[in-house]
Write a structure and sequence with these properties.
47% helix; alpha/beta; Rossmann fold; seven-stranded parallel beta sheet; 14% strand
């Protein structure tokens, strides 16, 4: 009976230091919780201090909260420095922070499109750039949380889809550029019920109608859950599980891209 118990107690990421952006809520929070359950120390980054403090209170010393806007110049250097100062190293970066603004192109505001490019593309690239020395030293990994919107046609969500397609391209190119020391992969979630879903700029009726259409277009007929993405992140961070995996764009989407 002791062998099954030992397997249950296995913490494959014990001693690893992982940085997670957008960790205060939604997918990012679920990712942080999955990582700490697997033994990792997590530098949890978000714009609001209160949700990060709550996460840290629940997880204890395993979580180091850092309040920062990843889209601000200079934030990446400060975030990486905070992670190394707290845990003494950095083994993985999870770029989860994202911004979604939906609507037809003819109605799109310039500032919304530029904000999505800055949060969804520039900020992950900048964080990776600042983390490269640490990741090279530790044979580390990057996991970008992208979207099926980066590979599917997205009428009335074209600007958002374009920003995620750019993140997918960044992932694949950096996988070659940073190999063999650093692995770079991306997870492409389908529709997941998170607070960001309610911040898209759509009215309640528009959002409900879109949710209905997305559910109908998903073979498993439901939205995903944050922990279902978090488990995949843990697998990609684990060098024993995914040590020969880089440049992959993995849809975790209920069959949306099937």
């Amino acid at each position: 009976m002791s062998e099954p118990k030992a397997r249950l107690a296995h913490r494959p990421l014990e001693g690893m230091s992982v940085l997670v952006t957008g960790a205060g809520s939604g997918i990012g929070r679920s990712v942080a919780e999955c990582l700490t359950s697997a033994g990792a120390g997590v530098t949890a980054v978000g714009r609001r201090a209160a949700p990060l403090a709550e996460l840290a209170a629940r997880s204890g010393e395993a979580v180091h909260p850092v309040t920062a806007d990843v889209a601000e110049k200079g934030a990446a250097e400060r975030i990486v420095a905070a992670a190394v100062a707290r845990f003494g190293r950095l083994d993985a970066v999870v770029n989860n922070a994202g911004l979604a603004r939906f609507g037809a192109l003819q109605d799109a505001a310039d500032e919304d499109f530029m904000a999505m490019l800055r949060v969804n593309v520039w900020a992950p690239a900048e964080l990776i750039r600042c983390a490269i020395p640490q990741l090279r030293r530790n044979s580390g990994t990057v996991v970008n949380i992208s979207s099926v919107g980066g590979v599917l046609s997205m009428p009335e969500r074209s600007c958002y889809g374009a920003s995620k397609a750019a993140l997918n391209s960044l992932t694949r190119s950096l996988a070659r550029e940073l190999a063999p020391e650093i692995r770079v992969n991306a997870i492409l979630p389908g529709p997941v019920d998170t607070p960001m879903w309610h911040e898209t700029g759509l009215s309640d009726s528009e959002r409900n109608e879109l949710a209905r259409k997305l559910t109908e277009a998903t073979p498993l007929r439901r939205f995903g859950r944050g922990e279902e993405i978090g488990r995949w992140v843990c697998a990609l961070v684990d060098p024993e599980m995914a040590g020969w995996m880089t440049g992959a764009l993995i849809p975790v989407d209920g069959g949306r891209t099937a």
